[in-house]
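Weekly structure sync, notes
Attendees: PL (lead), two postdocs, one rotation student
Agenda item 3: pending single-chain targets
PL asked that the sequence for the first pending target be pasted directly into the notes so everyone works from the same version. It is reproduced below exactly as submitted, 238 residues in total.
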Amino acid sequence: MKSLASLADGVVVISSRLREKLQQRTHGSVPVHHHPISIDVKRYPECRHRSGDSITLFYCGSFGVKDGLPVLLDAFDSLASKHRNVRLALTGAGTDEVMRRVLSRIHDSPYRDRIEYKGYLDEDSYCAALNAADIPCMTRVNSGYANAGFPFKLGEFLATGKPVVASRVSDVTHVLEDRRDAMLVAPDDRGEIVSAIEYLMADPERARAIGSRGREKACQLFDYRKHGLALVKFLADL
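Predicted structure, written out during the meeting:
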């Protein structure tokens, strides 16, 4: 960062924490543009009504430490012990060592017959799996990495119109309101994940309303066309 003032004409960041840090390090001498995640909402048609009795939780990511997947799996085991209709779908991929640990943890679950690891999916298959789920879960741990970045999948999850469970990291609490746009939970907290999902399960109408407002927020805040125009202007002004 010390060399930015002499090497960069401008910097693009994905979180307010990075923006503030860069501005402090460069004493405001380098223009900084905050460019969060961008999505094409048309890829995720709103489909909020469940078919059948099962409820599918959904996770997609790199299975890294920042994602807190062990906490999500612990939460699922707790839910599955009380609710026979709860299932969990996982997609994405990490390193060989990470995937060995994840698959071993799934195998050790007493409810492994209700956990499906779909592997790494192409874009169309991923969109279909996400749109078919009921409650997308964007879990994170309370780490510097998680708080300096921004969850890339969060915009896609919200765009489905499904009620999203998201950890309070980075700028999440700046853009989403708990129990209005999403269910916000403390990072690393299995109990809060369980409570949030049971809250949604207990009141389907309220869950649909939360999902609908979450989609509205995604359209307002993460549309790729708006961010593309803002980025072009930033570059043109350098």
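Discussion points:
- The radius of gyration is 19 Å.
- The mean pLDDT is 92.
Action: rotation student to compare against the earlier draft before next sync.
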